[in-house]
Design a protein that fits this description.
Order of helices and strands: HHHHEHEHEEEEEHEHEHEHEEHEE
Shape: elongated
Largest sheet: 6 strands, parallel
Number of helices: 11
Number of domains: 3
CATH class of the largest domain: Alpha Beta
Protein backbone atom coordinates (compact mmCIF):
# COMPACT_ATOMS: atom_id res chain seq x y z
CA UNK A 1 0.00 0.00 0.00
CA UNK A 2 3.00 2.32 0.65
CA UNK A 3 4.15 1.71 -2.95
CA UNK A 4 0.64 2.41 -4.32
CA UNK A 5 0.46 5.65 -2.33
CA UNK A 6 3.88 6.77 -3.61
CA UNK A 7 2.99 5.95 -7.23
CA UNK A 8 -0.35 7.78 -6.99
CA UNK A 9 1.06 10.75 -5.08
CA UNK A 10 -1.38 10.35 -2.16
CA UNK A 11 -1.25 9.17 1.45
CA UNK A 12 -1.62 5.54 2.51
CA UNK A 13 -4.83 6.53 4.29
CA UNK A 14 -6.25 7.81 0.99
CA UNK A 15 -5.34 4.53 -0.73
CA UNK A 16 -7.08 2.56 2.03
CA UNK A 17 -10.23 4.69 1.89
CA UNK A 18 -10.47 4.55 -1.91
CA UNK A 19 -9.92 0.78 -2.10
CA UNK A 20 -12.45 0.09 0.65
CA UNK A 21 -15.03 2.57 -0.72
CA UNK A 22 -15.33 3.96 2.78
CA UNK A 23 -18.58 5.80 3.44
CA UNK A 24 -18.17 9.53 4.02
CA UNK A 25 -14.85 9.73 2.19
CA UNK A 26 -14.82 12.29 -0.60
CA UNK A 27 -12.16 12.23 -3.25
CA UNK A 28 -12.09 13.64 -6.73
CA UNK A 29 -12.47 11.24 -9.63
CA UNK A 30 -8.91 12.14 -10.61
CA UNK A 31 -7.60 10.97 -7.21
CA UNK A 32 -9.58 7.72 -7.42
CA UNK A 33 -8.28 7.11 -10.94
CA UNK A 34 -4.66 7.67 -9.90
CA UNK A 35 -5.06 5.16 -7.07
CA UNK A 36 -6.75 2.58 -9.31
CA UNK A 37 -4.13 3.05 -12.04
CA UNK A 38 -1.31 2.57 -9.51
CA UNK A 39 -3.01 -0.57 -8.17
CA UNK A 40 -3.22 -1.97 -11.71
CA UNK A 41 0.35 -0.99 -12.60
CA UNK A 42 1.86 -2.48 -9.44
CA UNK A 43 -0.40 -5.56 -9.30
CA UNK A 44 -1.45 -4.73 -5.74
CA UNK A 45 -3.85 -7.07 -3.92
CA UNK A 46 -5.33 -6.67 -0.47
CA UNK A 47 -3.99 -9.17 2.07
CA UNK A 48 -7.25 -10.96 2.80
CA UNK A 49 -5.85 -12.86 5.80
CA UNK A 50 -4.55 -9.66 7.41
CA UNK A 51 -7.86 -7.93 6.75
CA UNK A 52 -9.72 -10.79 8.44
CA UNK A 53 -7.46 -10.54 11.48
CA UNK A 54 -7.87 -6.76 11.61
CA UNK A 55 -11.64 -6.52 11.02
CA UNK A 56 -12.78 -9.83 12.52
CA UNK A 57 -14.65 -10.97 9.38
CA UNK A 58 -13.57 -12.25 5.98
CA UNK A 59 -14.51 -10.65 2.69
CA UNK A 60 -16.98 -13.45 2.06
CA UNK A 61 -20.61 -14.32 2.63
CA UNK A 62 -21.52 -17.96 3.01
CA UNK A 63 -24.32 -19.40 0.87
CA UNK A 64 -25.46 -22.89 1.76
CA UNK A 65 -28.34 -24.66 0.05
CA UNK A 66 -29.91 -28.08 -0.21
CA UNK A 67 -29.73 -28.34 -4.02
CA UNK A 68 -28.18 -25.16 -5.38
CA UNK A 69 -26.37 -27.06 -8.12
CA UNK A 70 -29.20 -29.27 -9.35
CA UNK A 71 -32.34 -27.19 -9.94
CA UNK A 72 -33.38 -24.95 -12.85
CA UNK A 73 -33.75 -22.00 -10.47
CA UNK A 74 -30.37 -22.28 -8.76
CA UNK A 75 -28.45 -20.05 -11.15
CA UNK A 76 -30.82 -17.12 -10.70
CA UNK A 77 -30.93 -17.25 -6.90
CA UNK A 78 -27.13 -17.50 -6.66
CA UNK A 79 -26.71 -14.79 -9.29
CA UNK A 80 -28.75 -12.32 -7.25
CA UNK A 81 -26.87 -13.06 -4.03
CA UNK A 82 -23.49 -12.92 -5.77
CA UNK A 83 -24.26 -9.62 -7.51
CA UNK A 84 -25.23 -7.93 -4.24
CA UNK A 85 -22.22 -9.31 -2.36
CA UNK A 86 -19.84 -8.17 -5.11
CA UNK A 87 -21.26 -4.61 -5.00
CA UNK A 88 -19.78 -4.40 -1.49
CA UNK A 89 -16.54 -6.09 -2.53
CA UNK A 90 -17.44 -9.48 -1.04
CA UNK A 91 -17.27 -12.95 -2.54
CA UNK A 92 -19.97 -15.58 -2.20
CA UNK A 93 -18.75 -18.91 -0.80
CA UNK A 94 -21.32 -21.42 -2.09
CA UNK A 95 -21.88 -24.99 -0.92
CA UNK A 96 -24.46 -27.45 -2.24
CA UNK A 97 -25.34 -30.05 0.41
CA UNK A 98 -27.86 -32.15 -1.53
CA UNK A 99 -29.81 -32.37 1.73
CA UNK A 100 -26.95 -34.21 3.48
CA UNK A 101 -27.05 -33.00 7.09
CA UNK A 102 -23.49 -34.15 7.85
CA UNK A 103 -22.16 -32.21 4.87
CA UNK A 104 -24.26 -29.22 5.90
CA UNK A 105 -22.82 -29.26 9.43
CA UNK A 106 -19.24 -29.60 8.16
CA UNK A 107 -19.77 -26.82 5.60
CA UNK A 108 -21.21 -24.45 8.17
CA UNK A 109 -18.32 -25.21 10.52
CA UNK A 110 -15.82 -24.41 7.74
CA UNK A 111 -17.64 -21.19 6.77
CA UNK A 112 -17.73 -19.97 10.35
CA UNK A 113 -14.05 -20.84 10.84
CA UNK A 114 -13.32 -18.55 7.87
CA UNK A 115 -15.25 -15.83 9.74
CA UNK A 116 -17.63 -15.12 6.90
CA UNK A 117 -19.59 -11.88 7.23
CA UNK A 118 -22.85 -13.85 7.35
CA UNK A 119 -24.62 -16.92 6.01
CA UNK A 120 -27.51 -17.22 3.56
CA UNK A 121 -29.34 -20.48 4.33
CA UNK A 122 -31.22 -21.31 1.14
CA UNK A 123 -33.78 -23.90 0.12
CA UNK A 124 -34.84 -24.64 -3.44
CA UNK A 125 -38.56 -24.74 -2.69
CA UNK A 126 -40.62 -22.64 -0.30
CA UNK A 127 -41.28 -24.40 2.99
CA UNK A 128 -40.84 -24.03 6.74
CA UNK A 129 -37.51 -25.46 7.87
CA UNK A 130 -35.35 -25.89 10.95
CA UNK A 131 -32.34 -23.59 10.99
CA UNK A 132 -29.15 -25.25 12.32
CA UNK A 133 -28.14 -24.24 15.84
CA UNK A 134 -24.68 -23.35 14.46
CA UNK A 135 -26.24 -20.18 12.99
CA UNK A 136 -27.34 -18.92 16.40
CA UNK A 137 -25.58 -15.63 17.05
CA UNK A 138 -24.38 -15.38 13.42
CA UNK A 139 -25.73 -12.91 10.87
CA UNK A 140 -27.97 -15.24 8.89
CA UNK A 141 -30.95 -15.07 6.55
CA UNK A 142 -33.20 -17.90 5.37
CA UNK A 143 -33.79 -17.67 1.62
CA UNK A 144 -36.81 -19.03 -0.29
CA UNK A 145 -38.15 -20.61 2.90
CA UNK A 146 -39.06 -19.62 6.45
CA UNK A 147 -37.47 -20.36 9.82
CA UNK A 148 -39.92 -22.62 11.65
CA UNK A 149 -38.78 -21.27 15.03
CA UNK A 150 -39.18 -17.65 13.93
CA UNK A 151 -35.70 -16.57 15.00
CA UNK A 152 -33.89 -15.84 11.72
CA UNK A 153 -35.07 -13.30 9.11
CA UNK A 154 -36.48 -14.90 5.96
CA UNK A 155 -36.96 -13.81 2.35
CA UNK A 156 -39.58 -15.71 0.34
CA UNK A 157 -42.07 -15.31 -2.52
CA UNK A 158 -45.53 -13.88 -1.76
CA UNK A 159 -47.46 -17.06 -2.55
CA UNK A 160 -50.90 -15.71 -1.60
CA UNK A 161 -50.55 -12.66 -3.81
CA UNK A 162 -49.18 -14.85 -6.60
CA UNK A 163 -52.16 -17.22 -6.48
CA UNK A 164 -54.52 -14.24 -6.32
CA UNK A 165 -52.90 -12.52 -9.32
CA UNK A 166 -52.87 -15.70 -11.40
CA UNK A 167 -56.57 -16.27 -10.80
CA UNK A 168 -57.36 -12.60 -11.41
CA UNK A 169 -55.60 -12.82 -14.77
CA UNK A 170 -58.09 -15.49 -15.85
CA UNK A 171 -61.10 -13.72 -14.34
CA UNK A 172 -60.18 -10.48 -16.13
CA UNK A 173 -60.14 -12.42 -19.40
CA UNK A 174 -63.81 -13.20 -18.77
CA UNK A 175 -63.63 -16.70 -17.28
CA UNK A 176 -66.01 -17.62 -14.46
CA UNK A 177 -65.28 -21.36 -14.26
CA UNK A 178 -61.62 -21.44 -13.27
CA UNK A 179 -60.04 -24.73 -12.22
CA UNK A 180 -57.00 -25.18 -9.99
CA UNK A 181 -54.39 -27.94 -10.09
CA UNK A 182 -52.29 -27.45 -6.95
CA UNK A 183 -48.82 -28.79 -6.18
CA UNK A 184 -49.60 -30.36 -2.79
CA UNK A 185 -52.42 -30.90 -0.32
CA UNK A 186 -53.38 -28.18 2.14
CA UNK A 187 -52.62 -30.62 4.96
CA UNK A 188 -48.97 -30.63 3.87
CA UNK A 189 -48.64 -27.07 5.19
CA UNK A 190 -46.39 -26.26 2.23
CA UNK A 191 -46.48 -22.44 1.98
CA UNK A 192 -46.51 -22.51 -1.83
CA UNK A 193 -49.51 -24.86 -1.96
CA UNK A 194 -51.48 -23.24 0.86
CA UNK A 195 -50.68 -19.69 -0.23
CA UNK A 196 -51.53 -20.17 -3.91
CA UNK A 197 -54.80 -21.88 -2.96
CA UNK A 198 -55.72 -19.05 -0.57
CA UNK A 199 -55.00 -16.49 -3.29
CA UNK A 200 -57.15 -18.47 -5.75
CA UNK A 201 -60.07 -18.53 -3.28
CA UNK A 202 -59.77 -14.82 -2.46
CA UNK A 203 -59.82 -13.82 -6.14
CA UNK A 204 -62.93 -15.91 -6.83
CA UNK A 205 -64.75 -14.59 -3.78
CA UNK A 206 -63.90 -10.99 -4.66
CA UNK A 207 -65.45 -11.63 -8.08
CA UNK A 208 -68.64 -12.88 -6.43
CA UNK A 209 -67.93 -16.52 -7.32
CA UNK A 210 -68.04 -19.51 -5.02
CA UNK A 211 -65.10 -21.88 -4.75
CA UNK A 212 -66.32 -25.06 -6.44
CA UNK A 213 -64.55 -28.14 -4.97
CA UNK A 214 -65.27 -29.98 -8.24
CA UNK A 215 -62.88 -27.60 -10.01
CA UNK A 216 -59.97 -28.08 -7.56
CA UNK A 217 -57.38 -30.86 -7.61
CA UNK A 218 -54.40 -31.46 -5.35
CA UNK A 219 -51.44 -33.13 -7.06
CA UNK A 220 -47.75 -33.34 -6.26
CA UNK A 221 -46.42 -30.81 -8.77
CA UNK A 222 -45.37 -33.23 -11.48
CA UNK A 223 -46.24 -33.38 -15.15
CA UNK A 224 -48.12 -36.66 -14.60
CA UNK A 225 -50.54 -35.07 -12.12
CA UNK A 226 -51.01 -32.07 -14.40
CA UNK A 227 -52.07 -34.45 -17.17
CA UNK A 228 -54.26 -36.62 -14.95
CA UNK A 229 -56.15 -33.81 -13.27
CA UNK A 230 -56.55 -31.70 -16.41
CA UNK A 231 -58.12 -34.78 -18.01
CA UNK A 232 -60.51 -35.13 -15.08
CA UNK A 233 -61.49 -31.46 -15.11
CA UNK A 234 -61.93 -31.17 -18.87
CA UNK A 235 -64.01 -34.36 -19.23
CA UNK A 236 -66.30 -33.59 -16.28
CA UNK A 237 -69.97 -32.59 -16.63
CA UNK A 238 -69.17 -28.87 -16.26
CA UNK A 239 -65.57 -28.39 -17.42
CA UNK A 240 -63.69 -25.19 -16.63
CA UNK A 241 -62.89 -22.75 -19.40
CA UNK A 242 -59.58 -21.91 -17.70
CA UNK A 243 -57.13 -23.68 -15.39
CA UNK A 244 -54.63 -22.19 -12.97
CA UNK A 245 -51.79 -24.70 -12.65
CA UNK A 246 -49.82 -23.92 -9.50
CA UNK A 247 -46.55 -24.76 -11.22
CA UNK A 248 -45.25 -24.92 -14.79
CA UNK A 249 -44.62 -28.67 -14.79
CA UNK A 250 -48.27 -29.22 -13.95
CA UNK A 251 -49.18 -26.84 -16.78
CA UNK A 252 -47.02 -28.92 -19.13
CA UNK A 253 -49.05 -31.99 -18.24
CA UNK A 254 -52.28 -30.01 -18.74
CA UNK A 255 -51.10 -29.01 -22.23
CA UNK A 256 -50.71 -32.68 -23.12
CA UNK A 257 -54.19 -33.49 -21.81
CA UNK A 258 -55.70 -30.67 -23.90
CA UNK A 259 -53.93 -32.01 -26.98
CA UNK A 260 -55.10 -35.59 -26.38
CA UNK A 261 -58.69 -34.32 -26.05
CA UNK A 262 -58.33 -32.59 -29.43
CA UNK A 263 -58.89 -29.20 -27.81
CA UNK A 264 -56.74 -26.11 -28.23
CA UNK A 265 -55.06 -23.53 -26.00
CA UNK A 266 -56.26 -20.83 -25.51
CA UNK A 267 -59.32 -21.10 -27.79
CA UNK A 268 -60.94 -23.96 -25.83
CA UNK A 269 -59.20 -23.58 -22.49
CA UNK A 270 -56.89 -20.89 -21.09
CA UNK A 271 -54.00 -21.93 -18.85
CA UNK A 272 -51.85 -19.96 -16.41
CA UNK A 273 -48.79 -21.51 -14.76
CA UNK A 274 -46.46 -20.53 -11.94
CA UNK A 275 -42.63 -20.46 -11.72
CA UNK A 276 -41.68 -19.24 -15.22
CA UNK A 277 -39.37 -22.23 -15.52
CA UNK A 278 -36.88 -21.04 -18.14
CA UNK A 279 -36.35 -24.47 -19.68
CA UNK A 280 -40.08 -25.06 -20.10
CA UNK A 281 -42.54 -22.14 -20.09
CA UNK A 282 -41.26 -20.24 -23.17
CA UNK A 283 -41.06 -23.44 -25.25
CA UNK A 284 -44.60 -24.75 -24.81
CA UNK A 285 -46.86 -24.08 -27.78
CA UNK A 286 -48.40 -21.63 -27.31
CA UNK A 287 -45.99 -20.02 -24.84
CA UNK A 288 -47.21 -20.32 -21.25
CA UNK A 289 -48.49 -17.24 -19.43
CA UNK A 290 -47.08 -17.68 -15.96
CA UNK A 291 -45.80 -15.94 -12.83
CA UNK A 292 -42.09 -15.69 -12.16
CA UNK A 293 -40.54 -16.57 -8.85
CA UNK A 294 -38.29 -13.56 -8.12
CA UNK A 295 -35.12 -15.52 -7.43
CA UNK A 296 -32.61 -12.84 -8.46
CA UNK A 297 -34.37 -10.20 -6.35
CA UNK A 298 -34.67 -12.57 -3.38
CA UNK A 299 -30.99 -13.49 -3.56
CA UNK A 300 -30.04 -9.82 -3.58
CA UNK A 301 -32.33 -9.02 -0.67
CA UNK A 302 -31.00 -11.86 1.49
CA UNK A 303 -27.44 -10.58 1.15
CA UNK A 304 -28.63 -7.01 1.69
CA UNK A 305 -30.15 -7.97 5.05
CA UNK A 306 -26.82 -9.46 6.11
CA UNK A 307 -24.95 -6.33 5.03
CA UNK A 308 -27.46 -4.19 6.92
CA UNK A 309 -26.77 -6.29 10.01
CA UNK A 310 -30.43 -7.24 10.33
CA UNK A 311 -31.47 -8.26 13.81
CA UNK A 312 -32.40 -11.94 14.30
CA UNK A 313 -36.05 -10.98 14.71
CA UNK A 314 -37.70 -13.68 12.62
CA UNK A 315 -39.20 -11.19 10.15
CA UNK A 316 -40.51 -12.67 6.90
CA UNK A 317 -40.14 -10.46 3.83
CA UNK A 318 -42.42 -11.53 0.99
CA UNK A 319 -41.57 -10.51 -2.57
CA UNK A 320 -43.94 -10.08 -5.51
CA UNK A 321 -44.03 -12.65 -8.31
CA UNK A 322 -44.28 -10.73 -11.63
CA UNK A 323 -46.58 -11.79 -14.46
CA UNK A 324 -44.90 -13.10 -17.64
CA UNK A 325 -47.46 -12.73 -20.40
CA UNK A 326 -47.35 -15.14 -23.34
CA UNK A 327 -50.12 -16.70 -25.47
CA UNK A 328 -52.01 -19.21 -23.31
CA UNK A 329 -54.85 -16.95 -22.15
CA UNK A 330 -57.80 -15.45 -24.03
CA UNK A 331 -61.50 -14.87 -23.41
CA UNK A 332 -63.79 -17.92 -23.15
CA UNK A 333 -65.61 -19.19 -26.20
CA UNK A 334 -69.21 -18.15 -26.54
CA UNK A 335 -71.52 -20.95 -25.54
CA UNK A 336 -73.94 -22.10 -28.25
Amino acid sequence: MHDVAAAAGVSQATVSLVLNSASGSRFSEDTRKRVRDAVTQLGYRTNAHAKTLREGVAGMIGFIGDSVATTPFAGAIIEGAQQRAWEDGLLLLTVNTGGDKELEAASLDAMLSYRVAGVVYAAMYHRELDVPDALTGVRAVVLNSQDRAGRVPSVAPDEVKGGYSATRRLLKAGHSRVGLINIESLESGLPAAVGRYDGYCTALQEAGLEVDPDLVRFGTGGEEDGYKYAMELLTGPKPPTAIFCANDRGAWGAYQAVSDLHLSIPQDVSIVGFDNQATLAPFLRPGLTTFELPFVAMGRRAVELILQEAEPDGRVELMDCPLVERKSVTHPKEMP
